[in-house]
Amino acid sequence: MMPLCVFVVLLSQICQVPAVNKTSGITQDSGLKTAKVGETVTLKCFCGDDGTTFLSWYQQSLGGKPLIISNRLKYNTQGSISPMYEERFQVLAQGDQKCINHLIIKDLRLSDSATYYCGILEFNAIEFGQGAFLHVKTSQSEIHAVVHQPALELLRPGDSVNLSCTVYSEPCAGEQSLYWFRHGAAQPAIVYHSAGQCKNLSTEEPHLRNCTSSLALKSVSSPDAGMYYCALASCGEIMFGSGTRVEIVGGSTKVPPLLVYCLIVALAVSIIVLLVLAFIMYKLKKKLCSDCKGTVSHLACSAASDVMSQDADGLHYAALNVNRTSERHTQEDNVESVCVYSRVKTRKE
Question: Which terminus of the chain has fewer CB atoms gathered within 10 Å of its CB, N or C?
Answer without folding.
Answer: C
